[in-house]
Specification:
The complex is a heterodimer of chains A (497) and B (140).
Chain A (H helix, E strand, L loop, with lengths): L7 H11 L2 E6 L5 E4 L2 H6 L3 H4 L13 H13 L5 E8 L5 E11 L7 E8 L1 H23 L2 E7 L4 E4 L1 H6 L4 H4 L5 H5 L2 H15 L6 E8 L5 E13 L5 E10 L1 H50 L5 H29 L9 E5 H11 L1 H6 L2 E6 L5 E5 H17 L7 E10 L2 E8 L6 H4 L20 H11 L3 E7 L3 E9 L5
Parallel strand pairs in A: 12-14
Antiparallel strand pairs in A: 1-2, 1-5, 3-4, 4-5, 6-7, 6-10, 8-9, 9-10, 11-13, 14-15, 15-17, 16-17
Helix pairs in contact in A: 10-11, 12-14, 14-16
Chain B lengths: L9 E6 L3 H13 L4 E6 L2 H14 L7 E4 L8 H14 L6 E5 L4 H7 L5 E6 L4 H12 L1
Helix pairs in contact in B: 2-3
């Protein structure tokens, strides 16, 4: 101060006038004794207007207790600035937010009161309020849109998740924070490679956007379908990703509906194909038998028919009626295929069902040398309609017997294993086999017979293919002529709920 | 009218896995006053082997007309037609084929028209009138 030029009182006056802070002194009763000249500039009042009035005169009524509290604290702790923030009425009549401190200087003989200084922080407060509001809106939007947010700091390999991200998977934020590999750990194993490599491709800049649908496990072990969209929004000058963020949307419901739609479409296609087949069989087999029968009846009416021939004609009439009966039975089998079998899905023990079916084959199997083995130790149970599983075993065993090779002892081997969420049943024999190059595309079609001199109905493989695919499974055949045939069945284990 | 030579034996092959149909065809042809030699095959493969054989050894006994079913096991009528036409091309012969099927499927009829050897499509049963029609077509 001693180095300053000019009047020392004017020097302080100028500082007090030009400061953006207002200084005040209150006496021990809280009465205003001094206000700095900056009051005029900051709040519009002349200091004289306020001197002698109560310290809380211009404070917003709701904030008066705040002032009281600050003063009380200040009385307890002398010479320590006590912070406060209140609304203060501008000369224009509007309230401004102010922040300041009050300091107990009662013991200072030059002051003997409270020193208060405060400044207008309305703009800062409005900004904070605005930000808070924005964040509230964002959170509402995220919540309303069921969006989870992830924010990945690649430099420190830290991932921030929002509340909704965790809640979507039944976790709390506390349970997942601090585990940088959390997301990868709960990804479905079948989706993991595809999703992580897509994400890395985007991180490396090889892929414009990252957007994947995949399954992820909730805290309770359920699988949810997630639509994950993200983008790197900060890279260093070499293009190395620094930060990426994205959103999670739960699309489980949509996936389920899609799944159902697909199944329904498939069923409709099946029904349509069956109707076409129905028409074909009706026109071909039924018509064939009826025409034969009619022609035979006409012949039988012919008085010139030789007796030996008449016997033949009557025999063949009986035969034709038998054929008609068989064709009708086949048609009934096909028509009953598309009933609501989903309702008949239940948990089945593979060995129990097979044993039941084998009882029906006791007699034919007794007549031939054979070696039948099965092993269901790797997958004992399947959720499937019982009538279908039986029919599948029946048809495959019956085929294995009918198309066995006379050159060797018949071997049948049946085994099961789990394949993701499906059950694989492998059924192999060492029979005649089928030339797949020739018949590959016809194997599972109706009324196809591939062996000369064998009288099949041409229906077995058609029916089991329908039974399996109708429920979302598949059947594949591998066969070599005069070596044998292997069927690989992939049964959908119940329906996705 | 059986063409160039009325006295010549007119040979008919019937190929159908349905034994009754083969019998009925024979009866229909017998009931007409023409002289036919009817040979029936229960399998298209056997018929094909036979034709292949006589193509090499005895062209004289090749049939004048073949009545062919479509739906047969192991080798159906379509597959027969493909192989049959190749064999005939080799021995430089033309044998007309009439499809004889219980199918009333338009698709089958359309498909058969694509084979050059097929001259006619009959929905079973065969009648003598229909057979006359076939003979008429052959002689045209």
């Amino acid at each position: 101060v001693s180095e300053l030029k000019g009047n020392i009182a004017n020097f302080y006056k100028s500082i007090l006038y030009n400061s953006s802070d207002v200084f005040a002194v209150l006496d021990e009763e809280g009465i205003i004794k001094f206000k700095s000249d900056s009051l005029k500039r900051v709040f519009g009042y002349n200091p004289e207007e306020l001197i002698g009035r109560e310290g809380n005169t211009l404070i917003h009524p709701e904030d008066i207790p705040t002032v009281g509290e600050a003063l009380a604290k200040s009385i307890e702790k002398a010479n320590t600035p006590i912070p406060f923030s209140v609304r203060y009425r501008h000369k224009k009549g509007n309230y401004r937010w102010v922040e300041g401190t009050v300091l107990n200087a009662l013991s200072d003989p030059d002051i003997s009161g409270f020193i208060v200084n405060y400044r207008d922080v309305t703009e800062k407060y409005e900004m904070i309020a605005h930000l808070t509001e924005s964040e509230k809106h964002l959170n509402l939007a995220l919540k309303g849109g069921d969006l989870g947010i992830w924010d990945w700091d690649l430099v420190n390999d830290k991932v921030f998740y929002n509340q909704q991200w965790a809640a979507m998977l039944d976790y709390t934020l506390e349970e997942i924070n601090g585990d940088p590999n959390f997301w990868e750990r709960i990804l479905h194993p079948d989706d993991s490679e595809r999703v992580t490599s897509s994400l890395m491709a985007h991180i490396k800049g090889e892929q414009e956007i990252y957007e994947e649908e995949y399954r992820i496990q909730t805290k309770h072990g359920e699988w949810k379908w997630i639509l994950d969209r993200g983008k790197v929004f900060d890279r260093d000058k070499n293009g190395k990703a620094l930060r990426a963020a994205g959103t999670h949307l739960d699309i489980t419901q949509r996936k389920l509906i899609n799944e159902k739609l697909k199944l329904k479409t498939k069923q409709l296609e099946n029904i349509n194909a069956d109707l076409e087949q129905f028409a074909y069989i009706a026109s071909h087999n039924l018509r064939g038998s009826v025409i034969n029968l009619k022609s035979l009846l006409d012949l039988n009416d012919n008085p010139n028919l030789k007796e030996s021939e008449r016997k033949y004609v009557v025999d063949k009439m009986k035969f034709s009626v038998g054929q008609l009966q068989q064709t009708l039975d086949d048609l009934i089998d096909i028509v009953s295929l598309n009933k609501n079998v989903e309702d008949q899905i239940k948990e089945l023990q593979l060995d129990e069902v097979l044993r039941e079916v084998l009882v029906e084959f006791e007699e034919p199997l007794m007549k031939i040398e054979h070696n039948l083995t099965f092993d269901f130790s790797k997958a004992r149970v399947v959720r499937f309609p019982e009538s279908y599983l039986k029919s599948i075993f029946q048809n495959l065993i019956s085929n294995a017997i009918k198309y066995r090779s006379e050159d060797r002892v018949l071997k049948i081997d049946i085994r099961s294993k789990k394949q993701n969420d499906k059950i694989n049943i492998r059924f192999s024999d060492n029979g005649l086999g089928i030339d797949l190059n020739k018949y590959g595309d016809k194997i599972f079609k109706i009324h196809q017979r591939f062996h000369e001199g064998k009288t099949g109905r041409g229906l077995g493989l058609y029916i089991i293919n329908k039974q399996i695919t109708q429920l979302g499974g598949s059947i594949a055949i591998d066969s070599e002529e005069s070596k044998g045939t292997t069927f690989n069945l992939l049964l959908k284990n119940g329906l996705m709920r | 009218m059986t063409g160039k030579n009325d006295n010549r034996l007119f040979r008919v092959f019937v190929i159908d896995d349905d034994e009754i149909n083969n019998f009925l065809c024979r009866k229909v042809l017998e009931s007409s006053n023409k002289v036919y030699e009817v040979k029936s095959f229960l399998s298209s493969k056997k018929a094909l082997d036979y034709i292949k054989d006589i193509c090499l050894t005895n062209l004289e006994i090749l049939p004048d007309i073949i009545l062919l079913d479509i739906n047969m096991p192991y080798m159906d009528g379509w597959e027969f037609l493909e192989k049959f036409e190749k064999i005939l091309a080799k021995c430089n012969k033309d044998i007309p084929v009439a499809m004889l099927s219980s199918s009333v499927y338009q698709k089958d009829k359309e498909r058969s028209a694509k084979y050059r050897s097929v001259i006619h499509y009959i929905s079973k049963p065969l009648t003598s009138e229909q057979f006359e029609e076939i003979i008429y077509k052959i002689n045209q």
